[in-house]
Request: fold
Amino acid sequence: MERLQKVIAHSGVASRRKAEQLIIEGKVKVNGEKVTELGTKVTGTDKIEVAGVQIERENKVYYLLYKPRGVISAVSDDKKRKVVTDFLQGIDERIYPVGRLDYDTSGILLMTNDGEFANLLMHPSNEIDKTYVARLKGIPNKGTLRQLEKGIKLEDGMTAPAKVKMLSSDKRQNKSIVEITIHEGRNRQVRRMFEAIGYPVQKLKRERFAFLTLHGLNAGEARELTPHEVKQLRTLAETGSLR
Ligand code: URA
Reply:
């Protein structure tokens, strides 16, 4: 429950003081009933009208978080583990992650309170590219990696073709670093893909989400997306390209 004047002010239609004035003047209705009492509390689903116009309840906000390893992609956890919203404190809006990264995966995670936008980006048919860098146990050869490029059978079906690039390998330590780009978002997909070719992932980081990178951020840091980036992400999801 929040105070009516605060909700009106947050919606951007008036300052807190002006909102109080509008309430006193009888210009505000909650669920169709005029309200003139300043202390009135409202819930997230109450319909609020100011001078006959329904307000948008919250500003839509968009953040890019560099999720550290050892953090749950959720807004709360009953086992009291760290959650991604712990890294975005001081934000009034009720934001949540767009999709998820595993507890042990680090990297780009978008956070928003715009459900329509989140659904758009997560919808499988919109095919947003996500690039991961994986440290593997062992060194797969070209032919083996080619299986991932073609699509590989997992227990929940064939994967779509991926882009795969060997970045480095260390024979002595028997490990390699491989970059992989996929546009699907199945549960633990990258880990399962490498497992399927016999090279388990030891460490995983999402370095890119569409055209967005982690540039300028350390693990645990976040920044707001610019309005232009939000617009470009929408365009990309809706049309498959940036124009
Ligand atoms: N694939 C995975 O295996 N884990 C993630 O967190 C994201 C993609």
